[in-house]
Specification:
The protein has helices at about 1-30, 50-75, 85-110, 125-155; strands at about 35-40, 40-45, 115, 120. With about 160 residues, the chain is mainly alpha-helical. It has 4 helices and 4 strands, in the order αββααββα. The strands form 2 sheets. It has a two-stranded antiparallel ribbon with strand order 1-2.
Amino acid sequence: MKDKCSKIATIVMAVLFVLSAAVLVVFFTVGFNETGSVASGIVKWPKFTDLLMFWMYFLVALCLVVTIIGILIAKGAKIDSQMPKAAGVLRAIGSFLFVPLLIVGFVLGSSAAVRTGQGIYDNPFWCQATDALLYTIYALVGVTLLGLILNLTGIFKK
């Protein structure tokens, strides 16, 4: 059963990777033929921007659904008791890392007005909140990459 699930997961991951690569190739190679009107004038953007955006939203939604289903299955099967203690500690650290990162990001965020396609946006709270979310995303991507590198080196192996 485990080998069959692993095989299916590998196939699904490969299909999603190939589709993602195809969407990126189409986005970057087809051209900048779409024009639109914004406050600053006429601009051109990539032809398949909407395809890239919808694909990104699909992948995020799929990730959330699979994560929630995995949590429900793990809680139902009592898999948590079989995990090593180090993995439980790392998972707890990762869970509590998000809120402090948001707070630090909000404190470090700038409340200065920004120019958008529709003009100047000058709401100081939302400018700071946007910076906080961006800083949090950057930090969590960094932590993820560090964890990936440490895992590939074999530090987390039993």
